């Protein structure tokens, strides 16, 4: 039996020439927080959808790809990650993946907007599930400042930012990567979400150049997220000592996307992306 369809659509304007549209059943939540417009919709295709300032952040159905890939590629690259910082990521998806690693003793979430954390606990409980773990310390703070104030403290730092507009702009700039470098221990490493190689080429070139100028090792890797602009998504890893190419075994197996083959496959770049980063 077919269900009556609404004619309501959420449309993300990805740039002046490109949109992605999801049919929605209803608006679940809408508010203007101190930092941004926060909306939650129930969609027909992808379950609940979290939107910040008009941009898709995550959906029930495809969130696992992004969260697993931003967390497990860098966490497996480090042989024994104990202390982890997540900058942004107020929905808790990255934290949920971080605490799957048995070596992790402490995971700090530095999120500027406490309303994102609260809305995610309410409307995305399976994504936010790790936030109440005793190893997790949720700090509602400016992530840039938090990183500056915690030198030499973390094995791994993961930057789960919104798109490079508004409050997130500073998270895509060289001074921030330099302070991430200082906040890492002597063999620490970081990874950041760095948008789509199809439509954010200047940004990727710039971020990769800044990370390569800051860290001895830099590597771009890819994953496929259906609800993000163009589907192809990039992450940039910067490391003081360990290379993602050297991972031989994976320690976490309760994943839907990530595995050892995906780890290595994600490091293989199409020619047009290689060119972007000069590989
Ligand atoms: N255009 C989508 C970029 C979203 C990056 N962050 C998503 C947050 C999910 N935890």
Explain how this protein is built.
With 279 residues, this protein is of the alpha/beta class. Helices cover 27% and strands 32% of the residues. The chain has eight helices and twelve strands. It has helices spanning 63-77, 93-98, 114-123, 143-148, 174-183, 201-214, 260-266, 271-277; strands spanning 8-15, 18-32, 37-43, 48-52, 55-59, 83-88, 106-111, 136-140, 154-160, 184-193, 217-224, 232-239. The strands form two sheets. Strands 8-7-6-9-10-12-11 form a seven-stranded mixed sheet. Helix 5 (174-183) packs parallel to helix 6. The longest helix has 15 residues, at 63-77. It is globular and about 55 Å long. The protein starts with 7 loop residues before the first strand and ends with a helix. 45% of the residues are buried. The mean pLDDT is 96. Bound molecules: spermidine.
C-alpha-based Rg, rounded: 18 Å
Q: Report the count of strand segments.
A: 12
Ligand set? spermidine
Mean pLDDT across the residues is 96
Measured by DSSP, the beta-strand proportion falls in 25-35%
Structural class: alpha/beta
Separation of the first and last Cα atoms: 52 Å
Name the shape in a single word. Answer: globular
Summarize the amount of helix as a percent range: 25-40%
**Biggest sheet, strands in spatial order?**
8-7-6-9-10-12-11
Biggest sheet details: 7 strands, mixed
Unreliable residue runs: none
- The helix/strand series, from N terminus to C terminus, equals EEEEEHEHEHEHEHEHEEHH
| Count of helix runs | 8
């Amino acid at each position: 039996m077919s269900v009556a369809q609404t004619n309501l659509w959420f449309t993300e304007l990805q740039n002046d020439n490109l949109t992605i549209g999801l049919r929605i059943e209803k608006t679940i939540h809408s508010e203007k927080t101190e930092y941004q417009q926060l909306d939650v919709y129930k969609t027909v295709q992808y379950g609940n959808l979290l939107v910040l300032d008009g941009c898709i952040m995550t959906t029930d159905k495809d969130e696992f790809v992004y969260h697993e890939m931003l967390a497990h590629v860098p966490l497996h690259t480090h042989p024994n990650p104990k202390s982890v910082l997540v900058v942004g990521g107020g929905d808790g998806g990255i934290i949920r993946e971080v605490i799957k690693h048995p070596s992790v003793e402490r995971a700090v979430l530095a999120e500027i907007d406490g309303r994102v954390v609260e809305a995610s606990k309410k409307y995305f409980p399976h994504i936010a599930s790790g936030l109440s773990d005793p190893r997790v310390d949720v700090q509602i703070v400016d992530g840039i400042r938090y990183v500056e104030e915690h030198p030499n403290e973390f094995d791994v730092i993961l930057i789960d930012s919104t798109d490079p507009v508004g409050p997130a702009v500073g998270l895509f700039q060289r001074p921030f990567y330099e302070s991430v470098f200082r906040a890492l221990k002597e063999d620490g490493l970081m990874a950041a979400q760095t948008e789509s190689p199809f439509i954010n080429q200047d940004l990727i070139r710039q971020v990769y150049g800044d990370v390569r100028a800051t860290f001895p090792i830099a590597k771009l890797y890819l994953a496929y997220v259906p609800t993000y602009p163009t589907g192809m998504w990039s992450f940039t890893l910067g490391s003081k000592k360990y290379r993602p190419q050297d991972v031989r075994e994976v320690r976490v197996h309760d994943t839907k996307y990530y595995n050892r083959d995906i780890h290595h496959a994600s490091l293989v770049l199409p020619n047009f992306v290689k060119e972007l980063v000069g590989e």
